[in-house]
Amino acid sequence: MDIPQNINNAILKQSNEHKIILDYVSRFDTAIMNKKNDELLALIRHLAPFLQKDLISHFEMEERFFFPAILHTLPSEENIKTVLRLQYEHGILTRDLHWMTQAIERAKFQQADIDQELLRYLRPFLHALKIHARIEIVELFPLIDRSEACTDWITRQIATG
Ligand SMILES: [Fe+2]
Ligand SMILES: [Fe+2]
């Protein structure tokens, strides 16, 4: 019975990615607060691939398996509102990160100082991402964890692709 273990791993992996996101935002905030420019530069250099690859695939997993699982197995009005809010936020965040990653790539961080204009956009973006991840940690994943029907739904969907 490999599948349930794999599925549990998939749910756990998705859940753990929120901790990675929160850790990233927290390191970013700390670097800004302490005016640690070297650390900030290193974080920003890794930001574009993190946003383009890891964050987008994180959103896709939620939209393909986790949000529908709630709608199919736990469709209370409150849960539907939570999923709609999270889905809406994915749209806003995806829209913003599209142009932001272009701005990050255009900037010549290797030689130049930190682009203050970019930071003015990055900070609220990362703050919104942090709030989004917290809602998923506090509201979404406990619902999934508590419901066998919900985890079974995810199991079936992932197994069938
Ligand atoms: Fe999300
Ligand atoms: Fe998430």
Characterize the structure shown:
The longest helix is centred in the middle third of the chain and has 37 residues. The mean pLDDT is 87. The chain has five helices and no strands. 89% of the residues lie in helices and 0% in strands. α2 packs across α5. The chain has one domain: Up-down Bundle (Four Helix Bundle (Hemerythrin (Met), subunit A)). The protein is mainly α and 161 residues long. The chain is elongated. It binds fe (ii) ion (2 copies). One fe (ii) ion (FE2) binds next to α2, α3 and α4.
The geometry reads as: elongated
Q: Can you list the ligands bound to this structure?
A: fe (ii) ion
Residue-averaged pLDDT: 87
What is the name of the CATH class? Mainly Alpha
Q: How many separate helices?
A: 5
Please give the number of β-strands.
0
Number of domains: 1
Major beta sheet, specifics? none
Low-confidence parts: none
Radius of gyration computed on alpha carbons: 18 Å
**Named CATH architecture:** Up-down Bundle
CATH homologous superfamily designation: nmb1532 protein domain like
Question: What proportion strand?
Answer: under 5%
| CATH topology name | Four Helix Bundle (Hemerythrin (Met), subunit A)
Q: Helical residue percent?
A: over 70%
For the termini, the CA-CA separation is 18 Å
Structural class: mainly alpha
Keywords summarizing the entry:
single chain; 161 residues; mainly alpha; Four Helix Bundle (Hemerythrin (Met), subunit A); binds fe (ii) ion
Structure, briefly:
This protein has 161 residues and is mainly α. The site of one fe (ii) ion has 6 residues, from helix 2, helix 3 and helix 4.
